[in-house]
Amino acid sequence: MFAAENGLKGDPRLQGISEAIRVVPGFPKPGIMFQDITPLFLDHKVFKDTVDIFVDRYRDMGISVVAGVEARGFMFGPSIALAIGAKFVPLRKPGKLPASVISEQYVLEYGTDCLEMHVGAVQPGERALVIDDLIATGGTLSAAIRLLERMGAEVVECACVIGLPEVKGQCRLRGKPLYILVEPRDIDCCQGM
Amino acid sequence: MLQSLLLRASNSISLPLPNRHQLSPSPKPLSAWIDAAPSAGQSPSNYRSALPSLRCTAAGGGSELQPLQNQGMAAQDEKDPRIARISSSIRIIPDFPKKGILFQDITTLLLDTKAFKDTIDLFVDRYKGKNISVVAGIEARGFIFGPPIALAIGAKFVPLRKPKKLPGEVISEEYSLEYGKDVIEMHVGAVQAGERALVIDDLIATGGTLCAAIRLLERVGVHVVECACVIELPELKGRERLEDKPLFVLISG
Question: Where is coiled-coil annotated (chain A) (predicted)?
Answer without folding.
Answer: none
